[in-house]
UniProtKB/TrEMBL annotation:
<dbReference type="Pfam" id="PF00593">
    <property type="entry name" value="TonB_dep_Rec_b-barrel"/>
</dbReference>
<keyword id="KW-0732">Signal</keyword>
<feature type="signal peptide">
    <location>
        <begin position="1"/>
        <end position="24"/>
    </location>
</feature>
<dbReference type="InterPro" id="IPR037066">
    <property type="entry name" value="Plug_dom_sf"/>
</dbReference>
<keyword id="KW-0813">Transport</keyword>
<comment type="similarity">
    <text>Belongs to the TonB-dependent receptor family.</text>
</comment>
<dbReference type="InterPro" id="IPR023997">
    <property type="entry name" value="TonB-dep_OMP_SusC/RagA_CS"/>
</dbReference>
<feature type="domain" description="TonB-dependent receptor plug">
    <location>
        <begin position="121"/>
        <end position="250"/>
    </location>
</feature>
<keyword id="KW-0798">TonB box</keyword>
<keyword id="KW-1134">Transmembrane beta strand</keyword>
<dbReference type="InterPro" id="IPR036942">
    <property type="entry name" value="Beta-barrel_TonB_sf"/>
</dbReference>
<keyword id="KW-0998">Cell outer membrane</keyword>
<keyword id="KW-0812">Transmembrane</keyword>
<dbReference type="Pfam" id="PF07715">
    <property type="entry name" value="Plug"/>
</dbReference>
<feature type="domain" description="TonB-dependent receptor-like beta-barrel">
    <location>
        <begin position="396"/>
        <end position="932"/>
    </location>
</feature>
<dbReference type="InterPro" id="IPR023996">
    <property type="entry name" value="TonB-dep_OMP_SusC/RagA"/>
</dbReference>
<dbReference type="InterPro" id="IPR000531">
    <property type="entry name" value="Beta-barrel_TonB"/>
</dbReference>
Amino acid sequence: MKKQTNRSKGALLLLFFLPVLMFAQETITGKVVNVDAGVGASFMNVVEDGTNNGTATDIDGNFSLKVAKLPVKLRVFALGFSTKFVNVTTAGPITIQVTESSESLDEVVVTGLASSVKRSNLANAVSTVTSEELVGNTGQTTVDGALYGKVTGVNITSSSGAPGGGFALRLRGISSINGNNQPLVIVDGVYVNNVEIPSGLRFASGGNRGNEENAANRLADLDPNDIENIEVLKGSSAAAIYGQRGNAGVVIITTKRGKGGRTKISFSQDSGFNVIQNKLGLRPWTAQTVEDVFGAEERAKYDATIAANGKLFDYEDEIYGNTGFISDTRISATGGNEKTKFYVGGSYRDEEGIIQNTGFDRLSLRANIDHRISDVFDFTSTTNYVRSGSSRSFTGNENEGGLSYGYTLAFTRPWNNLFPDANGNYPNNPNYSGNPIFVRDQAKNEDSNNRIIQGFKLNTKLFTNDIHRVRFIVNGGVDYLANETYVYVPETHQAQIGGQGGFIAQGKNNFTQFNSQAIGVWDVQAIPDALDITTQLGVTYLKQEGNLVNSRGSQLTAGQTNVDQSVNQVIDQFLSEEEDFGYFTQVEGNYKDQFIATLGYRLDKSSRNGDPNKLYGFPKASLAVNLTNFDFWSLDAINQLKFRAAYGETGNPAAFGATFTSLGASNTGGNGGVVVAGLKGDPNVEPETATEFEVGFDMGILQNLTLEATYYNKTVRDLILSRALPASAGFTRETTNLADLRNYGLELALRGDVFDQENFRWNTGVQFYLNRSEVTRLDVPAFAQNGAGFGTGLGTFYIEEGKPVTQLVGSIDGELQQVGNVEPDFQMSFNNQFTLFKQLDLSFLLQWKQGGDNLNLSRFLTDLGQTSPDLDTPEGQARLASAANALRFVEDASYVRLREAAIYYRFPSQQVKSWFGEVVSDIKLGLSGRNLFTITDYSSYDPEVSVNGGAGLSSGIEVTPFPSSKQYYLHLNVNF
């Protein structure tokens, strides 16, 4: 009876305190609405301000949040929206309105293949470039060219000044000697092809290698104006999740998406022109210097030309002096409803070069669709069709082919008339094997491209409650590229007469690249209001196929331009197929925004490795500590102080075919067959592996300025090189793992608003970065890198243990010694944006590259031809007297350049409304320019130069390039 009484008392006590327990917490319910779209805002963060108590809205914008008591202040935020603070006095239901904001787009950074993190919590140095930073100031032809001076740790070198570009991007130094040094490029989840495609031009011009054919890399097909933002994962610590494709870094591009609400239309027109950035000029000839150099006969020709024309012929101006018109027209529309959002657009760019009959054009059509199928499924599709083409004429290296303008001009004497006569007949050049006027007017070097990039993403919400959220994501895409090249040299060309008798090459090149990923993501509040953990687990697949066919013919039938109308015909075909497969997992933990840690691991196998079924592991780990989020922090002047450290590994498989010993065709006694080629494959070759450790800190100062500082140390093991074999081996060379190298460097960035007043706003950014490299292991004797120089007599890249991988070495008095280093001492940029009276925008970007040498073999040629403009100076005469070629043509390539400058005027909204009513919402007019001036002691056209294209050790060697240009633009932007 006593036990029953005690139980009854306990029940009475429970009934008494139950209402108190029930009312100890309040549950706020409501909906977050996107004012711009008029629909619920999904996945918005709703947090009790000053705490870690929060939740996220569902697909329709609804939320439910328990709080200890009312009233409270809620903080509502998400990527792409302005943060909203709301005072709540009742449990609800309530409605919270939020607005979209492009300024918040850089607050979230991708950290995994299916996750992201606030930049304030990021443990890696990841650079972000917004749409406004990329193309908001001036016209940009290509994406890689638009990145100049905007990302720390990235060295960009132009391999061609031709319209459509040709750029080499190096993220934190050289990652491979023989392999790929260009970063992996991902556009909306699609791994895109950034290949350079040789045309066969070298077989007509006498150029040495396919990478010297002045080709563009195919990132030129992507319209920079379609891009919303770019994230650059510069090192292995950030790119480790991409495994064997991330050794040279990763560039993640996100294109513009649709926004809900009424349909908005934007129209833009850029009109401008190209002019040569820097002319070398003529040697100041006099009758006496002509006679002293070339003799009395040439003086007579000189006197006759002066008497007839009053001046010499300026063939540099004739070839490079064209003013090329630029037109870039764009129109786009965005809109949608609660189910479907869209962004559709089209653009056409037509850019003429500084050489007549050169240019680049690109038609781009894009459709990005986001569709919510149900509360469980949502789907994203990105489609981009591109048709591009270019005419790049003939520049760069060659051997006596009479086509490359720089070669020809180096030996052409300006008192010889090379223009066609009244009947259209071009005279031969008496001083060289080609007439540059004939080549400009009659010869062709063209390419055209048809390309489709299709991406997809299916997101499935498997389970959601207050603690757990489980998603399954399938995404990927296809990049299909059909490229055609065309080279034609008439049989009447001077060097073809008595030689090849005319030359033609037609290329048909197809590339298909498919990638897919399946990823499971589990978000859990492990400790309510304290610890959030995100776990992802997935598989990836990548397949690449290439089919390159080049048909060439010589001894052309008169006036014919087809390969089948030639006597001597050759067909080359290169087929390739690669497959990569990987598993990955990553766990991210966030404790009160104070400690943010990540652990990840990737397992990859590739058909390019010696054992295609062997899995290679690539770990990653990072930690960020936000001191300002601790309770003890009370220094208002410092609103963020975050220390971070990260470690990661990435890989780079061998080149296609390196694991096998190839067979070569033979013809003996009229019988066809095969023979073993001289290059021995290595069936045990392993991928090059980069290991990187970085440390740094981020500091927020006075609410307006941020300082980022990073030091990194990156080691690349098992570099794949070729070594000579003894004759008894039956082969001449073998490709295998033979070396290690190290890169280390420093990156600093300071940016923010100096002034932010109603009628005056000044935003500035200063960036500083440097890199140093060293070959730390070399299992073969030091050697001149094949295809990256012209021998030790003129200077070449030289791979030597204990020395920089970027050193230039030459023979001086019979001894090999370092004569230069193409790695800059440091680089800086200074970017400024001013807004006056809310209507006038001014901006400029200055870039400073200090140090870094170039091997100027253009001047070597003009010295040989006696046409260098400075040969009559003491410096020029001293150079002619020097026998040390490798030393005399190495020059400091430092410069300061006004990379971009612009001024825009935005018409007042009331004035626009009075003109057009509700049809037009705003109008903006502007003037801008690129490469407006350069301060440098470098003696040639541009200190940014590479004869070797974008691959390998490509920068710092010049041989008669396509000169760089200045660009001037008039802009009109109208929004409807």
